[in-house]
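[Backbone geometry]
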Amino acid sequence: MFGIFKRKVKETPTTPHGFVRMFAAAEVSRILKPWIWDGGFSNSEVATALPLIRARSRDMAKNSEHYLRWLDLFVANVIGDGVKFKAMPGKSGDSKAIDTTAAAFLNYHWWRWSTSPEFSDISGRKSFAAICRLCAENWARDGEAFLLIDRAAPNDYGFSLRVVRPDAIDETMNGANGKTAIRNGVEIDRATLRPVAYYFRADREDPAASWVLNRPVVRKPAADVLHLYTQHDETQTRGIPLGHAVLKKLKMLDEYNVSELVAARDEANTTGIYSAPVCRDSEVFEYTEEQDAALTMPSEPGTKIKLEPGWDYKTVTPSHPNRELTAFKNSMLRDIASGLSLEYACFANDWGGVSFSSVRAGTIAERDHWRILQAQFIEQVASPVFRAWLASFLKYRASSPYVAADFDRLSEHEFRGRTWEWVDPMKDVNAAAIAVDRGWKTDTQIAADYGADFEENLAEAKRLKKKKEAAGVLTAAPKVEKTTPDTGKENDEEKND
């Protein structure tokens, strides 16, 4: 009678070893078969893929309007009219105060060198800002940019720069030599991974260039080469075009556009089709020239066509452009904009259905990306150029009373990338004024946000005030109205439907 309490316990089946739980991303199945193993940005993979990716990126830069748009945005936002320099030399001793006399001296001579193509560019064609823009374009399109430093240039500073095509460095050159190793044309120290030298191929650069000296391979010390690229792996020595992830989809979209355009043009040129009666196709070839001309004549309003008995004429109704074309292209361009870290509406020039808030959110995220790239450019190009320029300048008599021993304190400096104003300047100014009053920001920081220098502004304002007082036109400064913080609600006039 108590057998009901003696139930047989159901045994839990053991899980076979081959079917244990695992990471879904590590699953190997028929569905995920296209997902192949990848070794990351290894030097061997870069050496194999870089020439083809670089060539395709250059082709898109010539023939794709969207890719060209991205390159223009890249250069305009990362460099713009140039990175702003400010010398910040310290006084002798432990004082952190800035030597204003030395700062003014360096600011002037850097301005003189950087704005003169005869000084900054070995070819005498580009100012330093133009060199930076070309390097930024090479960085985005080719994945990297190279600058050669000429420390014996025939100018007042003995210093010039030369832009070199990235494909002049042989990415297939590899080898080992004692404590150093060559990886993709870059000789590195095995212990520290620091670049030691770069190998340039004469047949990939202008053979008539003087620095080649008729040698097939030129070895340049790393101290004379500036290499700008984005590193995705610690051992990676060469850069990959920054738009590599979208090249395939963008190329296919461009080909789709061509096909759709050809189809639309073909249908637009074909208004109708004549059909011969069944078993009387030979009559087409029996038509006289006058009759054939009547069948192929351009259509005109009110024109009537008389056909032979049994013949038929069907009007062609164009089906291209496809009514889904716009939605499809917008979807593809959104993916491409995401791969390029761009705000879609600006990238695709598609402002339909956007609002002030959505554009603001996308623009802020995009500008954060530009600031990261600006900082990388300053770290890898602008600051190294200044330090090399200063070391060369201090060797010349024009640097008097400063000498090479002053290098450490004179080398303190600051580069600022371009900044952006918001679409509503009044709100921006009011917000800045509130931040200064509350102590959240300083006048120096606010001026830097506008791409200016507060101390220079004060000196300029003082100078202009004296001129205005002398001319009797001194006016009171406008008052800034302080507004309440934005609630996040949109006004009707700020919406764009």
